[in-house]
Amino acid sequence: MLRIINLVFMFTVVVGAVAVYDMKMSTEHLNDRVSELQRQIEKEREDIRWYKAQWSALNQPSRLQGVVDRYNSYLQLEPLGAEQITTLDALPMKPVQLEPAAHDSMGGYAGALPAVR
Questions:
Q1: How far apart are CA 41 and CA 34, in angstroms?
Q2: List of residues 6+ apart from 75 with CB closer than 8 A
Q3: What is the pLDDT of residue 101?
Q4: What is the C-alpha separation between 106 and 70, in angstroms, rounded?
Q5: Residues 34-47, mean pLDDT to the nearest whole number
Q6: What is the DSSP-derived secondary structure letter of residue 95?
Q7: CB within 8 A of 57, min separation 6: which ones?
Q8: What is the spatial distance between Cα 78 and Cα 68, in angstroms, rounded to a whole number?
Q9: DSSP sequence for 3-72
């Protein structure tokens, strides 16, 4: 009887050791994955900083003026006039074409739609 109990305890210890080893390996795998994701995030942040610097360099007024001067014969750009700047109130309203309202109890568009039954 004592021998069976010892065998059960040894089996339990072996199963526990395998479970702990499996948890350790999965934790190491997850730790490696987190490290890889952190490296990717840092690379993306570095790329964003680089793109922002490029954007700032490309949008410098002196550089843009040089591009306009160089390609003005092709682009045929003109300076912005004060009459081109307006407010939203000065724009004409878009005409709305509505269908005549049906003589339904619902009226308008809602009465024209087929009912779901």
A1: 10
A2: 68
A3: 59
A4: 63
A5: 97
A6: P
A7: 63
A8: 10
A9: HHHHHHHHHHHHHHHHHHHHHHHHHHHHHHHHHHHHHHHHHHHHHHHHHHHHHHHHT-HHHHHHHHHHHH
112: which residues sit within 8 A by CB, 6+ positions away? 99, 102, 104
| Averaged confidence pLDDT in the chain | 86
The Cα 17–Cα 25 span in angstroms is 12
pTM, full prediction: 0.49
- For position 56, what pLDDT does the model report? 94
pLDDT > 70? residue 37: yes
| pLDDT given at position 113 | 57
DSSP state of 111: H
Residue labelled with tokens 């350790």: 24
Find the mean pLDDT for residues 93-103: 72
**Residue 82, burial from CB neighbour count under 10 angstroms (0-12, 13-18, 19+):** exposed
Structure tokens at 87: 């407010």
